[in-house]
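Pipeline run #58 for the internal structure catalog. This entry was flagged by the ingest filter as a single-chain record with no existing model, so it goes straight to prediction. Upstream metadata was stripped on purpose; only the residue string is passed forward. Reviewer on rotation: M.T. Logging verbosity set to normal.
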Amino acid sequence: MRLLPLLFLPLLACDFFTPGSGTPADEVVDGVLRCGTTEDVTGFLTGDRLPIEVASTQAFELTLDFDDPTHSGRVRVSSDFGVDRLLEVWIGDARLIPASRVDGGDAELELIALNSGTVSGTITMACPDPSEDCNNIADDDGDGLIDCADPSCAQEPRCVQEQADLEVIELSCGDDLEIAPPAIGTFDEQRVLYAFGDDAVQWHFYGGAEIVLTSTDGPGTVVVEAGSGGLACSGELEATGVQCATAAMLTAGVEATFAAAQLPLWLEPDDAGWTSVRARLDCD
């Protein structure tokens, strides 16, 4: 979705490169990312840039398949209004960078390989037609996901900057609550990104319908049981999402225990919504 200020690495001030050369590439033949193609970037260096050739305002999605999981990339979208740099998100094991070319602007992929400096792997570019409109409460691209719940909108600024918590529950000592599962509504009711592990490469995408558990009581234990699978993330909300100090996957019907000190706890379903959620706070 978005302007992610998490990773500002010193990239080389270079033009488009052939792999590891430092000389300009033939942009018509080599090193150009186009709709429906896979580009082998083995031998490219950190800081090398690949131009992205798409029509103006076209949405696109890059799938990164690198041999070294620490290698990454970011899409640089420039226009008269400035430059945005978009990092990857994870959906399961897939590493994606959803973006779009701004009307009148340009887009390119900047490669990042900090350990060896040399990239090994491929990049596949897809262009959905029609693409998802992130603000019309409709499934435009037919993938069953609406607006900010669609990975194509994961870096859309409105999906990141103008969100409200969907369901906030403040637990008190002794509470044992059956929480009515929220349903996805408009774009401002949906969270987008959670990060755990190395936040340079470990942003994971989840849609909306989350529940946020908070408490002002003292030490104790929080017990959560969900009727369907999902993510439990202990962390604080930041400008670009939630940075998880602890993350655990919830299994349907299995209790998960957290220290009260780990609140706020963000509960995000794997599917479009939770089937059921129960939360209990046992204070010391």
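catalog note: The CA atoms of residues 192 and 206 lie 6 Å apart.
catalog note: Confidence is low (pLDDT under 50) at residues 1-29.
status: ready for reviewer M.T.
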